[in-house]
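Supplementary Methods S3. Input chains for the assembly prediction are listed below.
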Amino acid sequence: MNAAPVLRAVSGGALGADRGRLALAVAAIALGVALGYAIHTVNRTAVAEFSTGVATLAGRADLVIRGPADGFDEAIYPRIARTAGVAVASPVVEADARLPGRTESLRLIGVDAFRAAAVTPALVGESDAALDLLEPDRVFLAPAAAAWLGLADGATLALQSGTGIVEFVVAGRVGAPAGRRLAVVDIAALQDAFGRRGRLTRIDVRIAPGAPPAGVRAAIAAALPPGVVVSAPDEEADIAARMTRAYRVNLDVLALVALFTGSLLVFTTQALSVARRRTSFALLRTLGLPRNRLAAIVAAEGAAIGAAGGVAGVAIGHALALALTRIVGADLGAGFFRGTAPMPAFSAGWALAYVGAGTAAAIAGAWLPAREAARAAPAAALKAGDDESAYARLARPWPGLACLAGALGLVGLPPVDGLPLAGYAAIALLLVGTLLLRPRLARGVLASVPRPRRVVAALALDSLRAAPAQAGVSLAAIVAAVALAVSMAIMVASFRTSLADWLDRVLPADVYLRAGGASSTAWIDAEARAALAGLPGVRRATFLRSVSIVPVAGDAPVTLLARDLDPARAGDALVLVDEGPLPAAGATPAWISEAWADRTGAKPGDTFELPLAGRRARFGVAGVFRDYARQTGAIVVERTDYGRLTGDDRASDAALWLAPGASAADVRAAIEARFGDGRLTVATAGEVRAVSLAIFDRTFAVTWVLEAAAIGIGLAGLSASFGALSLARRREFGVLRHLGMTRGELGAMLAWEGALVGGAGLSIGAALGGLIAVILVHVVNRQSFRWSMDLHLPAAELAAFGLAMVALAALTARASARRATATDAVAAVKDDW
Amino acid sequence: MNPLRRRLLIAAPMSLVAARARARVDYPPVAAPLELAFPRDHGSHPAFRTEWWYATGWTRDEDGVERGVQVTFFRNRPGIAERSQSAFAPRELLFAHAAVADPAVGRLVHDQRAARAGFGLAQASTATTDVRIDDWTFALDGDTYVAHVPAREFTLALRYRATQAVLLQGTGGVSRKGPRPAQTSAYYSRPHLAIEGTITSDGRRRRVRGVAWLDHEWSSDYLADQASGWDWIGVPLDDGGALMAYRIRDPGGGTYWAGGAIRDAAGTTRILGPDGVEFRPGRRWRSPRTGVDYPVAFVVRTGDLEVTLDPLMDDQELDARASVGIVYWEGAVVARVAGRAIGRGYLELAGYARPLRL
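Predicted structure tokens for the full assembly:
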């Protein structure tokens, strides 16, 4: 048999018959592929951005030496420079320069041009007057920084130092790559102007030709004090990328879920299509078309849907990626990149991979219908009324039960390499298991529904009870969609409620001030602290110093928060989830965040060491606190202890309690009058809370899009399966019409059936979604971000969602069956004889 | 060497006029009487704008092959960041230059270093001659200067042993560079240093011996505004005497100022003023790389002595920096009187590419 006429005979009709549903299936696959491809592309951009970022800054360095964000003792520099095998050691001081009146800071890099020229030539200013490179008041801007600030050569750049201002003259450009907002000054100028005397933040090292790199690295490592580490530039990029990996993987999994629901839609579409062509397939089989050939053709139809969806998805996904990076940044709003504007690049290889993934998902969806088409005995299928046998096989309980058991076993497993892989697998198994069991579950749910008194409703219930497998097909998409929507809603609500509670607890003061973090050029010195505490209307002022330190070489940094707090009443300032006694003498009390507790396994009563000011300091864990702000962990110590251990007397932030009757607006005005406009970021507790929640909502906006898409796909699946079933039930409808049922009553019956299926799907899906939410909250989020949160059920929202879902199911079912019920009663009944 | 270092190397110590424009410090003038005291005055004089230790000599290896070798360290006070408290403050910059003139190569092989003073990595001692930039060092040990210069294409490990007394140039070491009294430098020479050591290149280590000339000079006002460059010779004479002569050129190529000194084998020194020295350019050589035209042969009249200077080879240009436009010629020359060789020394031609004023 020639392939073309066969294809035309088998598929031609199907393609023509229901363009709308076909388009929907293509769209569903496209959606999954688009989301996946967009997220992947943005991630790729993010990772590339980390590498180019490191490459720019590291230049031709073979090794990079780093310490805490506020730097390390410059005395290390000559030791490194003299280490055998070191060709050039280039000392660097980096700072985030606060610009009065701007929220974003400017990356300021201080270099010794003589040394940097040999290692990081991109960080050496371009000027005809060579001595400009050494002048203490000259700054060289990267093109992106010049454009951002709107400054030409010769212009004055005002930067904040402490709460004062230092002025620089723009002397030229640095050849940093496009998009990097950085400025270069002489290293001595940076140290002098921003109070960094004696400190370096980085030393870039070039190894002499012929020297053994591993040996040189070991010699350097041996010369470094605690908290200062040596690594290769690509390792640095790797650490940076790893810090965001859990977030990126989470998004990838969301895209995978979208693709899975698309696959389910292909399943229902093809199931419908096969059901409709049952008679013609049987005819073809009797005419000699081999069984496997028929199956291959139906699977190929799925592949065609998948490929079309895949191609469209990649196109949409790329556009989406461009839009996302432009609007929310390459980290999808997570805030890892500042002052850069990376552009996603198109990759043919990845595009093909995603088209392939879409195609594979569609083939998987079409697989069961294809097997079913091939298996049907031609003789029986030529006759009508054999439809119930079609998916009977799906009702076998063991595979489904095995999946559920597997899921149960997986939830207790620890993360793999920092990723909650077992949690994800458990969710997948739960979903698959429930889908496999859904005809059985549907029967159970329908059996529990009391028999309604209204005839049409009773008829609908009977009809579904008699053919649970049919209901099962309709249920597939609905269950998946509801489970997805419910689980996400619960997870987001839990997170948001926990965050809001946490914000209430950690913002006890009335007004908050921020100068800048440890790498910022802005800080609050003793004089400024006294001034703040003495402002009229201020009852009490506490201060905080935030420093990022590297506890272990090759590991992500941890944030050390030195703050004014009463050790006996730490719970007033921190949301403690675990508490212990204050440590004995010899160890400084410290409270650790859950993330840090997870990273190190430390618990109250334990002691641990941290590198501070080039020495190892001993701390005792007095408590574990909840912290949604810092993913890699945070450690709180008393500010006086920190000052004693480091000699660092600066503060990054301040919290002010107002005297009774004082107004935040007055205090804010007093702060600006005292320190100058915009030198300190001032916000009330309410504003901080609102901004934090707004950031949260923006970050999770993507989940709402996915939920909406899932619901749409679920309803489309319901529509497809009802369309298929009603076509198969034309004879039944004819008989009912003959028995005196009006067309309206027939529609009502189908609406009831839809509502019942929708309700069944809703109850199964909601139960499944609840379970998934528990895994998301307690396993996936906890392991990905090390955040614990309290489960919160958004009851009202879920109830409204449920009602809407059932109503939509009823309407969808009725609308999809319109064509079947519209046929002439006599013609419909004649079908059979 | 990358363009930046090149720029700094040349711009900072040599384009003194450019630095003057932005000077915010009052550099002390070199004024008589100097009252030099050694070894203290072998060391650095950081208050002055610029200073150099310039060792040039002829060497002969065990196979009898002759090579010129130059080791120079510059110190510069750019007048920047004088009040800075940072250990990185660029108050003092150090530069170094080393070159080997090997006729078999046919051009100068050279390398450079540049750094800000600090951290003991780059420094110029004020106690005696002891300058270093990373692993390049030049230091006086007793009566011997020890140079260690691991360069890109060669490594010098040379000892320069003093065999004669210090030769104070000008009036008690105050050397005039122009008609105005303030246009002076502190300047002494050490002719007839006995070289002993090794030159390693192309994987071969050659023992060498030879005779060198050391200039140590510091100044705050070396080159007048009206001047565009200079010619200089320093020749240890075969008979044990020493000859130094220089002229500061005006932009037209004429002589703006001149001077010199002749010391005979017995140690009697004649200091020459502008009337006593005459530079008559001879054969010219155009650099194929930079296109700069140099008079590579001279007849120099010092007092009643008329000395003909011929280069070891024509191409002794310190270039590889055509982009910058500032290049020099620093080369080994043979000095002859009436066709008879009387000594082998060095000739320096500065400011031929363009005036040493930017």
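The mean pLDDT of chain B is 88. The domain at 3-29+40-350 of chain B is CATH 2.40.370.10 (AttH-like fold).
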